[in-house]
Amino acid sequence: MSRYSARFKQSVVEDYLSGRGGGGREVARRHCIDHGTVRKWVAAWRLHGKDAFRKKYSHYDARFKLKVLRFMQTQALSCRQTAAVFDIRNPASVGLWKRQYDSGGIQALQPRSRPSTVKQPKSPPPPDVSRPDEARTKEELLEELNYLRMENAYLKKLDALIRSESHSAAQKAQVVAGLRHQFPVKGLLKMAGLARSTFYYQCKASQVVDKHAQLKAHIRSVFEQHKGRYGYRRITSVIRRMGSTVNHKTVQSLMQRMQLKCLVRPKKYRAFRGTVGRIAPNVLQRQFDADAPNQKWVTDITEFRVGDQKLYLSPVMDLYNNEIVSYEMATRPVFTMVARMLKKAMKRLGPDERPVVHSDQGWHYQMRAYQALLSERNLPQSMSRKGNCHDNATMESFFGTLKSEFFYLNRFESVEALQAGIKKYIHYYNHDRIKMKLNGLSPVMYRTQPSRP
């Protein structure tokens, strides 16, 4: 009885082919099996599909063993690779046959036990090589020559597809179709062990046009245009805006098949000096929505590291459409950076606009100079509770998006290069990057759209 079930073997192979968690050694460690076993199962799956894991009781005669050994020698393959090509479940058997043949010739390959009653796959009778050439007729020699030519051509084609992902039936049908103009189809089908109906079915299936070919091209185009930042929901929205009606589940399924995966995020930086000034109440109270622009603003500071240098970013976001209203950058987290950012944001306000300005309890926002700037325009100040990042979740989310979609995906030689890249990304974020909660529009597009009746 097999130590591992077919379902378990298939799950191991699918885990390896998905590419989610490292190479074969990581997959083997995860499933508590040997690394060589993973390689053997993957090779068998690539050649024979699900059939590779079905129970198989086979009796191999001397001629089949000799054919296997000849193929291994001419193609310079290992016992494991040869076993995978011929669907021999135990690669050690190939090594045993080789030792037997080297010591005793073809006679040593004869089975010593009684012949098995299991039916063998149909194959053409190989030529009788035990008789000398002088004792055979011209017809017998021509038959042998034709057989060897056909066998050699078939095995060459099969060897070229060892790393193919297709199932065994489709693979064999492809080989037979490539040789049908040189040799009789009947003989090739017998050699491949394929039924005639299976062969013609696979030929017809291979000619079916992929109905999702155009949609796949659109998906890849949008994915590459946004450098892997869009998942299936945003890509679905973009394709719909192009005029195509498509279901998000179809896009998700196709992206999985195409191995297109949205890139994800970690987070950093928090600076707290304790109480250095006045703490403002939490006016915002996690109400992260607004009915019009310039009603609620949120701000914070985040840190980037390039080699042994650091860069700090201080932006202001409007909660109406999550647009970055203004921002400043500096190599030190000084107060002047925050002051310049706030003054730039205030220039965008109308005479009667007084948004609530929410932040955490960072020392910049506790300073009298910062609070004086807000008082000049009568802007209400709001602060998160101490040590509670969820009270400023929208700005924290922006920092996570910025780093996962831009910072972690690129290498920067200097702080200046990083500054230039952040400026480009914030422009992209405001003008081009769509948000699903904004009806598939970018922040600027949402703010400037015509008012609805």
UniProtKB/TrEMBL annotation:
Residues 289-451 form the Integrase catalytic domain. Residues 107-136 are annotated as: Disordered. GO terms for molecular function: nucleic acid binding. GO terms for biological process: DNA integration. Signal peptide: none annotated. InterPro entries: Homeodomain-like_sf (IPR009057), HTH-like_dom (IPR025948), InsJ-like_HTH (IPR055247), Integrase_cat-core (IPR001584), RNaseH-like_sf (IPR012337), RNaseH_sf (IPR036397), Transpos_IS3 (IPR048020), Transposase_8 (IPR002514). This is IS3 family transposase. It comes from Paraburkholderia polaris.
